[in-house]
Amino acid sequence: MKKILNVLRDMDLTVYQSERFNLDNFHFDPFQDEGEEFERSRIFEKDNKFGKFVLIKSITKTSNFSYFLDGSRLTYKIGDIETTDHKFMPIVAGQIATGVCKRNDGKIKKQAIEQANIILLHSSINEDDLYDFREKMKVLNIRNVPFIVETYRQKNQETRPENFAIATIHKIMQDLEIKMLTEMVESRLLKPEKMLVIDGSLQFMNKKADVRLFENVIGISKTYNPNLTGILKRKKQQIGTVLTKLEFGERTPVYEYQFSNSNRQIGAWYLRIRPKKFVKNPLDGIVKVEKIAYLDDDKEDGFDSGLIDNISQSILLERNVTSYGKEARWPNHLYPIHLTERMLKDSFLSSEHFLNLF
Amino acid sequence: MSQKIGKVSATEKKPTTNDEFIFWLDDNVEIKPFDIIKAENIIEKKKSKTYALVKDIFHITDSSGHLSNYVSSDFGDMAAEPTTKRLGVTYAVAQVVNNNKDIYMPLKDGVTVEFADEDEIKEALGLDKIKNPIPAGFIDGTNNISVPIHLNKDFLIGPEGAHLNISGISGLATKTSYAMFMLQAIQQTVKDTAFIILNVKGDDLLRLNEENPNLTEKQKEKWKQTDLECKPFNNVNYYYPYRNIEETSFANSSLAKTHLKRQFETGIAKNYVYTYDHDKSNLDLLFSNVDDPSFTMESILNYINEHSDFDTLSWSEFKSKLGEYTKSGSNKKNEITVQSWRKFKRLINKSINNKIFQSSLSAQKQKCQCHLSDEIINIKKNEVKVIDIAKLDEHLQCLVFGDVLKAINELKFGETNRKEEEIPKKIIIFVDELNKYASSHSPKNSPILNYLLDITERGRSEGIILFSAQQFKSAVHERVKGNCSTDVFGRTNAIEISKPDYRYIPKVFTNMMTEKNKIMKIA
User: Fold this and answer.
1) 8 Å CB contact of A321 and B82
2) What is the total count of domains within chain A?
3) What is the secondary structure of B145-188 as a DSSP string?
4) Domain assignment present for A312
5) Rounded Cα distance, A70 and A339, in Å
6) Which residues of chain A are within 8 Å of residue B85 when distances are taken between CB atoms?
7) For residue B26, with 0-12 CB atoms within 10 Å meaning exposed, 13-18 middle and 19 or more buried, which class applies?
8) Does the beta carbon of B78 lie under 8 angstroms from any beta carbon of chain A?
9) Contact A326 B81 (CB under 8 A)
10) Chain B residues inside the 8 Å CB shell of A278
11) Which of A302, B49, B319, B338 fits A44 for a cystine, CB–CB 3.0-4.6 Å?
12) Any chain B CB within 8 A of the CB of A318?
């Protein structure tokens, strides 16, 4: 098999093989709700208009979550390309995978997995050259995983081009997540008692995605911005100062945020799933939960508090077992999500194998 | 029908090798050590089956430690129940035993592992190609199959290999039962063999010619599966130490009087005695376990055998004669000190007080007296001679056992007048408590040890085969046990399995030996 960089060279493109490395190691993991903006602040639930903390009562031992969706990526810089307009731009490649795990009788099994290998070139590449390269890459197929060739655009000069490439890969991965969610909904697998949990914020899911897809879906972020302002009554007060007062089993009221260029309304609340005395940091053991309003009634007046309590109760049931010892952020991790993530990571080619394709 | 049970797992740290591999198990599959499994070994277009024996079985989870499990139970809450079960897998280590096309390439990752069926187990263990098979038991698989196993006659009783040794603690290991099964199997399948069985305790082996009324239909069915008839031994004769009590048919035995009476009435039992004339030369056997570093006892025995002073005596006259030699100043005639004669007298006096020491054979037919060695020398093909020594003191047991060994040696080394074709080709001697006669601490010049060494080292070619049993193999003389080509292990204890004799057996198997109702064979 011909090395991929040589395929580009054969097309008379000036390509340099530079030191190859994993880009994920050089970029600090952002908060899962990084960049979140609140258009307006209001309590987004019907029976808690004063916005008090709610202690979740333990009524059932059955969780309403049956499916867990996650996406994972590995990105590498594999070389540089000299464009015809005299730019020297990195070639970035990545492996992405999206998967859903199903829980049945306490056991986690694979429901679906989709993988792709991505090669990103700078957007200044000639479109015909890009077409030809795509055609050549179509025949390449490692363990039935296709190669997708895309371009990235450097929107500003302040940010390194690699970051734009990573963002593009991330977007492709999120689109794959939406595709998978669509298939789940179309197969009528999701129900109120068989909900799907997405790892991370729902805010960044493709804004054009049909809101109906999210009827039985929640997003759970294990990391969030504690300096977030604008959602509390005192606009300047940061959310972190409130969350430190949250006791085990308590949730905050649901706050609403709405996107400026979308009619999607999201309700978000925080829930403490571990007792304070067993965690090191003040915000450890608190997860952020998001749900998209789907019914008109909900969009207008917010969610039923009972529904939010039910969902919160299911999340509390997810606290055991833990990934203690495996994950530094174990207090905020939900084990089924951890397993889904592991399934995806285990599906990747080893870095040595992948980089040697180039 | 084959049943899929898991898949081969080869990792960076635990690769598969040509003789071992690891496979993970389906969550709902049960296996146990000793199960025979198979996996397809495909090299290019060459397909073969690799058979393996399950050794260790493990269960792992993704938990980083016990603390993690504690935390995952709501920080030590006993009542906490997890919503998601921890990711865990059961995996087993399997020892490759065979490949049906002699391919010994390691199995590849992800290959499906299945239970071997009955025919495949036979192929795996080479049971399908055994010549002159002798039934030896069953191998039971978790997949509800029970495959009869056979031993190659040539390796069990010669000429390729010989001697069988059984170890296991008293009562629970079923050593004697297994030995009897093996002897029965040989009696039914090999016609030119004779058996000498020493009964060393109770009356276990004194009713070998009788039906067992307690056998269940299931047990009888098992016998059928091995192609053997479920029946008592044929041609059995019993030999008891003589004592002068008519009530017990003059036999010194633990066997019930009624049984004794029946045996004597049917002419299959005799009482053995030792007379001075006949057995003077066997006196050395009484000193088998006596330390004799300066060979003084040996010198005295030689003196007795050679000197005319000790000819034509009775046992009581012999004692009186010894008395003369123990008087002060009596050593003028020989170089042996009076102190040595006194020690000899003290030791011999204790022994020859037993009623088996008679001046001559009794003329009374009802006493059925005989010389044991004469009986052994006349053993016939397919005959079973059971010699009861259970109620004799240890040094007398040595005398009898030594006498038997000596007689067999004489028979097989052509020192009798019998025609060659009448003599059984193989004589199998079964003795329990072998450690008593061939102890790892036996004096080097012990005559019984020397006979046993002779049998185990050279008996194979002469057709003298030793089947032995003892509680602790570690207590048996190195050269005796080292020459046994077949070893059978029954239940034993943890201290015993820590001995060097068990070092070559994988830990999981030795640990199984300490469990209840386990018997296994390693040939």
Assistant:
1) yes
2) 1
3) -EEEEEEEHHHHBSSSSB-EEEE--TTTS-HHHHHHHHHHHHHH
4) yes
5) 10
6) 106-108, 321
7) middle
8) no
9) no
10) 71, 75
11) A302
12) yes
Q: Name chain A contacts of B75, Cβ cutoff 8 Å.
A: 275, 278
The SS3 of residue A282 is coil
DSSP B290: S
List the single residue in A321, A330, A342 with the smallest CB-CB distance to B84: A321
Give the gap in angstroms from C-alpha A146 to the nearest C-alpha of chain B: 23
For residue A282, is it within any domain?
yes
Other beta carbons within 10 angstroms of residue B140's beta carbon come to 13
Enumerate the β-bridge partners of residue A77. Answer: A21, A92
Number of cross-chain residue pairs from A and B with Cβ atoms under 8 Å apart: 63
Do the interacting molecules here have an ipTM over 0.85? no
How many other CB atoms are found less than 10 A from the CB of residue B340?
A: 18
| Domain encompassing residue A144 | 17-350
Exposure class string for B299-317: b at 16+ Cβ within 10 A, else e: bbbebbeeeeebeebebee
A61, A108, A324 member nearest B87 (Cβ): A108
Q: Is residue A151 part of a domain?
A: yes
C-alpha span between B262 and B236 (Å, rounded): 13
Q: Does residue A9 lie in a domain region? A: no
Phi, psi of A105 (to 5 degrees): 55, 40
